């Protein structure tokens, strides 16, 4: 193995050796508060994807995202390994109306939208306006802007975002086929319960939640465990955190039963 490939293998196995990971950890409080690390990596990722993938090619856009996150600056995308779990969940269904909580820079929206039928719609909710604009730019670059709307807000903002989803995007009882959760881990369970209270889900609706292992959403996992066979049927996918092979993570895929 060459010195360069050995170094790359070590970085993959021991992610804390990567400066971008250390910088992310230092910027953790800023990220939790604002949705960005604070060192400009989100805009740098946008520029990298635009420069390294042809317009209208979603798979090339994803590959450029993965290249940037693995070899330049870590991003909190679902990533290439866990992304296959999301792909498989989407392929098992034919969702028409989808909701994403935590759009970040648009990676998972591109990954999702490329697998949708032409008449399906994904609404991606992102708290940070700059991230939302980055996501819109990259969705347009990938040729998927007609399938995805990016909404700035949060489910827990007192009802404003819920109202926008209902009035502008057609969310109503029994209409939501697929929910992807990848935002503030402490909001996973409260936001899911809010959506349940709205009645948007229907029997057979699918909910996929990333990072249930790391950083972790123990309350969400406990709720799904306690609701197994009555409200939900859940599959736990054992995998790894983004762009490395040392730290283990969980992705939960849950089918709504009632």
From TrEMBL:
Molecular function GO terms recorded: O-methyltransferase activity
A family per Pfam: Methyltransf_3
Protein's UniProt keywords contain Calcium: no
Chain coiled-coil ranges: none
One Gene Ontology term from the biological process aspect of the record: methylation
The entry's keywords: Methyltransferase, S-adenosyl-L-methionine, Transferase
Listed InterPro entries: SAM-dependent_MTases_sf, SAM_O-MeTrfase
UniProt-recorded name of the protein: O-methyltransferase
Organism of provenance: Nocardia terrae
Lineage of the organism: Bacteria, Bacillati, Actinomycetota, Actinomycetes, Mycobacteriales
